[in-house]
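Predict the structure of Uronate dehydrogenase.
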Amino acid sequence: MEQAGQDDGRRDVRADGRADDRADGSADGRVRTVVVTGGAGRIGTYLRRADGGLAARGWRLRLLDVTAPDELREDEIAYTADLSDEECRDALDGAMTGADAVVHLAGIPTEDTWTRVRRANIDGTYRVLESARRCGVRRVVLASSNHAVGFYPTDAQAPVDAAPRPDSYYGVSKVAVEALGSLYADRYGLAVVSLRIGLCTDGPGTTFDLGIWLSPADAVRLVHAALTGPVGAAVGAAGGATGGAAGGAAGGGQVVAYGISANTRAWWDLTSARALGYEPRDDAEVFADRVVAYEGPPGVLGHGMVDTDPHAATGRRP
Ligand SMILES: NC(=O)c1ccc[n+]([C@@H]2O[C@H](COP(=O)([O-])OP(=O)(O)OC[C@H]3O[C@@H](n4cnc5c(N)ncnc54)[C@H](O)[C@@H]3O)[C@@H](O)[C@H]2O)c1
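Done. Here is the predicted structure for Uronate dehydrogenase.
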């Protein structure tokens, strides 16, 4: 259901800024429209920041969430829909029609029961990709997670092109998100960027977080790069092949990119993110004297998620 806001035509913006902070959502300086699912959530709110969010880079935002955002900017439109529910199709297509791109953030961002994770994260992503295909939205940015590879050790650089090693049902759902992105790139020629986001918060809390933090401002830079950067070149940089028959011919393809800031203690490979044009500017190290010592499971990328009880929220056993 469309909730509020206006969509009163396009406006031109200047296109003379630096690559990652310029005020153009596209090379021609035209304002483009992006659907942000999960727009009421934490990262969605960062992307909406008036002082340098996606709008400042020339994007007009349509927000879709099961929860309405507190306040809307004048140029935002909000839609409410539950992506777990097949009935969301009309609202989803309403948001997607005429849009240039979609950033899919909506979902359960932590461990939970298999059924809840599957319905929100896997079924929800399928519905977003199907709607993008139906409505001709050819650029898709998917929120994956480091938990897709959470059982890889932390004593080597986290690989971008190795087999998944999920650390939880949540991690499995993010592997499925990436697989769905790959399918829609190869089968339908969509350009898909799956972002394995680290910890995107106002600031890191533990010594572990100093390696995996993604600042709010860098999150905007990363998503803007994922919306505009050359997917084919990024696929090559990640060591993969560009899309399948349909994907390659249509300029599509899927690339996986890690999403962290320029952290001194980082051990993730940002090659594909940088190939998209991402230039992180923040470093978690400035918080080093304010964080607490990490005391979770040692040696694995997935840190605390690896021993999180998926049934804790319900108190029931399957
Ligand atoms: N924040 C991080 O550190 C981090 C790290 C890795 C991955 N991610 C991923 O990024 C995305 C956004 O994370 P976040 O931190 O903003 O989470 P969040 O919980 O703050 O926001 C998620 C939003 O999705 C909405 N949502 C949940 N289920 C929905 C459904 N069925 N239909 C419609 N909307 C639904 C929620 O209402 C919420 O507003 C998630 O997919 C998460 O898994 C986040």
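The chain has one domain: 2-307.
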